[in-house]
Amino acid sequence: MTILPVTHDDVSDVVRAHIALQHVSYAHVADGGHAAALWGTYDRRVADLHDAVDAAAAARASGREPEATHWVARTDRGAVAGLAAAFRGVGEWEHDLFGDAWRPSGAAWCLDTLYVMPHLRGARLGQRLLDTALRARPAYLWVIAANESAMRFYERNGFAPDGFIGRSGPGWGDMDMVRMVRTA
C-alpha cells in the first residue's frame, strides 16, 4: 500500500470511497436513509476537497504546515484502500450541532476521517493512516458509540472518552457518538 496526500486527480475516487466506507461501517446501526443522505452530499464534498487540496498546496508553497491534511492509501493496482484526514481546530458542525453545550477538547488537532476497506482491516493499514495523519500529536475525534471496534483501536492509540457525548444529528442518522481525546 502507498499512502500519499490527496491530489485533485484523487478527489472523485476519494469522495466515492469515503461515502461508501461510511455507509458500510455504519449500516448495522444507521437508519434506512443514512446512505441516501451521505450520497446527497457528494457534490459538496467534491468541491470542499478540491478547496482543501488547494489550501494545503498553498500552505506548503509558503513554507507553512497545512491546516488540514487528507491522505489516500492505494493498492499497487491503484484502488483506494483507505482514507484519513485531520485538521487543526474545531469542525463547524460541532458548534452547529451542540450550540452552547459544546466545550473544547483541549487538543489542537481533530482526526476527521479514518476508514479502511473492510477486507484490509487487521492489516495495520488503519495504524499507518492514523500515524500519517496525526503523527504523535495530541488530537480528538468523534466515533459512533456503537462502533466498538473503532473505539478499541483508538484506545490502543492513546485516545480515551472525555465525557462529551452527543447525537450525530439527522444528516448522520441521529446516532449516539463519543468524543475521544489523546493528550500526549
Would you mind describing this structure in some detail?
Keywords: Transferase. With 184 residues, the protein is of the alpha+beta class. It has helices at 11-26, 34-39, 42-61, 92-98, 125-134, 148-156; strands at residues 2-5, 68-74, 80-88, 109-116, 139-144, 160-167, 176-182. The protein has a seven-stranded mixed beta sheet with strand order 1-2-3-4-5-7-6, with helices on both faces. The chain starts with a strand and ends with a strand. The model has no long low-confidence stretch (mean pLDDT 93).
CATH homologous superfamily heading: Gcn5-related N-acetyltransferase (GNAT)
Ends: how far apart?
28 Å
CATH architecture descriptor: 3-Layer(aba) Sandwich
Total strand segments: 7
Look at the structure and give the CATH class.
Answer: Alpha Beta
Please state the CA-atom Rg, rounded to the nearest Å: 16 Å
Percentage of residues in strands: 25-35%
- State the helical fraction: 25-40%
Runs with pLDDT <50, length 5+? none
Side by side, the strands of the main sheet go 1-2-3-4-5-7-6
Order of helices and strands: EHHHEEHEHEHEE
What's the pLDDT, averaged over the residues? 93
Please tell me the total number of domains: 1
> Helix count, per DSSP?
6
Protein name: N-acetyltransferase
Domain N-acetyltransferase: 1-184
GO molecular function: acyltransferase activity, transferring groups other than amino-acyl groups
Keywords: Transferase
